[in-house]
């Protein structure tokens, strides 16, 4: 758990950081022991509650555990917590070991992996890269998910929901629209989905160029983001410090930290995960 002085932080990361920022991905697989596969770079190192992290993972011909042609086979059971991932480059076939069910994924695929679900990854040559966000809370939820769920960043559900929320200081707000991918996970509060804003989309403060500006304190929990489209400016209210992000970047917002979020026009879109170390209200 971070010290209070460091808890309120804007996290950020890019898909192509310097080579020195990539390290071998090592973890303990319950049935197989220590594993080292691919390389990882970290964008978010903690949240205000629970165990929360995000970043990018990649493999290719020179990556640990990969074949000479860049293909890669590994077993992964998400032992560190529920994982929401988005494929950046490459293709793979994922097989749920317990059922034999197979899923083909490629660029734009959103992969929701429950903690403890053993999945066999067959990654095609010559390379593969994904964004990931991993969450583990203290209290287990009843009836947690038991299968992979595959969505896509280009999904267009029949009904997007206007995002209405209430800020403690500013009151009721409308900021863009969204749909849910997951409304629960293995522990605590775990929500995920896709959000968008821009011209013609509802917002309390939207200019004629499609730029949206809204106060935000993450009242539902920490928010971990992959920016899918557009450019965003996040300003810390307390310090005035500005953070600028563009499509492809990872962003981490802290629950309880007051910011101003500006999505620059004409449109923006994000994959979001919201987490909190308390179970949802019944």
UniProtKB/TrEMBL annotation:
Residues covered by region (Disordered): 1-20
Coiled coil: none
Family annotation (Pfam families): Cupin_3 (PF05899)
Stored InterPro entries: RmlC-like_jellyroll, RmlC_Cupin_sf, UGlyAH_Cupin_dom
Gene3D superfamilies in UniProt: Jelly Rolls
Domain (S)-ureidoglycine aminohydrolase cupin: 82-131, 222-269
Name used for this protein in its record: (S)-ureidoglycine aminohydrolase cupin domain-containing protein
Lineage: Eukaryota, Fungi, Dikarya, Ascomycota, Pezizomycotina
């Amino acid at each position: 758990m971070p010290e209070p002085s460091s808890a309120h932080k804007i996290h950020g990361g890019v898909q192509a950081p310097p080579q020195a920022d990539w390290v071998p991905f090592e973890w303990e697989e319950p049935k197989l022991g220590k594993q080292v596969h691919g390389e990882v770079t970290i964008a978010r190192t903690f949240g205000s509650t629970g165990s929360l992290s995000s970043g990018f993972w990649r493999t290719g011909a020179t990556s640990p555990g990969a074949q000479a042609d860049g293909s890669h086979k590994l077993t992964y059971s998400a032992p560190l917590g529920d994982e929401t991932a988005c494929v950046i480059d490459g293709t793979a076939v994922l097989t749920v070991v317990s059922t034999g069910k197979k899923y083909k994924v490629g660029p734009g695929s959103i992969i929701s992996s429950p903690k403890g679900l053993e999945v066999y990854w067959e990654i095609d040559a010559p390379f593969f890269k994904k964004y990931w966000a991993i969450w583990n809370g203290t209290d287990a939820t009843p009836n947690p998910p038991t299968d992979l769920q595959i969505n896509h960043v280009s999904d267009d559900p029949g009904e997007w929901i206007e995002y209405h929320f209430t800020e403690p200081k500013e009151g009721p707000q409308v900021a863009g629209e969204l749909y849910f991918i997951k409304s629960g996970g293995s522990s605590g509060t775990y929500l995920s989905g896709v959000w968008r804003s821009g011209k013609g989309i509802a917002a309390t403060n939207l200019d004629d160029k499609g730029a949206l500006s809204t106060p935000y304190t993450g009242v539902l929990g920490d928010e971990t983001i992959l920016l899918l489209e557009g450019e965003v400016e996040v300003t810390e209210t307390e310090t005035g410090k500005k953070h600028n992000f563009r499509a492809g970047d990872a962003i981490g917002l802290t629950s309880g930290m007051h910011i101003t979020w500006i999505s620059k026009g004409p449109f923006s879109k994000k994959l979001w995960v919201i987490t909190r170390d308390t179970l949802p209200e019944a």
